[in-house]
Amino acid sequence: MSTSVTVARGKLYLVPAPLDFGCDVQAPLQHALPLGTLQAAAGITHWICENAKSARAYLKRIDAVVPLATTLQTQQIQELPREVHKKGDHAGQFDARPLLDAALQGHDIGLLSEAGMPAVADPGSSVARAAHDLGIEVVALTGPVSLLLALAASGLNGQNFAFVGYLPQDAEGRTQRIRELETLALRTGQTQLFIETPYRNAVLLHALTQTLQHHTRLAVARGLTLASASVRSDTVKGWRARALAVDERLPAVFAIGR
């Protein structure tokens, strides 16, 4: 008589990362993430990430606070395909199920992005979706989400808001998109949140102050969770009267509304 053994499936943990990726100065890890999140992450030995090098650097920081369950060299790390980074994975076209084989064998898997919460303004939604399809429990750990931190500090409408990603890089397309978002924000009261690559922050801020109407409110949150963090929320008229020098090394979240 044969017997079959059922292997309990592992879980998929969405592990937030600090918001200081790419910054000259890093915040103490325990200031940005609760101990429970660090302890959970330290116990994981299988990972899905955007970039293996930066994932190992993050795990090394965790190890300095809470020892990892296994050595850094023995951690199993898989990268999401490059096209997922470029085009995103929220449209359902990328099949992430093969990345979750270890969970089907009973291992917990951690999902990482470069900064903040994976699958929020970053790749990872395809992995969470695949986990649900495979019957794997998905657990989001507590940590910083730059969009919500910026929204909370902006004074703009936190009951009705939308994150619209990146604006077009070409000047004409960017100006048109800014006007579209402003029209929507002023008509509905819905706050519009967007981001940019840090070295283009100054260009975007200039475009916003030159394109938006003088009474529209613009908020810019920079370097969130860092000692150098700042949040400014003012009418465009106020922005024009007192320009702000933008540090092109710090990540920023932009928001417009009324």
From TrEMBL:
Q: Which CDD domains match?
A: RsmI_like
What domain of life does the UniProt record list for this protein's source?
Answer: Bacteria
What's an example Gene Ontology biological process for this entry? rRNA processing
> Where does the Tetrapyrrole methylase domain lie?
55-235
Q: Mention one GO molecular function.
A: methyltransferase activity
**PANTHER family found in the cross-reference section:** RIBOSOMAL RNA SMALL SUBUNIT METHYLTRANSFERASE I (PTHR46111), SAM-DEPENDENT METHYLTRANSFERASE (PTHR46111:SF2)
Q: What is this protein called?
A: Ribosomal RNA small subunit methyltransferase I
In which organism is this protein found?
Variovorax guangxiensis
Give the lineage.
Bacteria, Pseudomonadati, Pseudomonadota, Betaproteobacteria, Burkholderiales
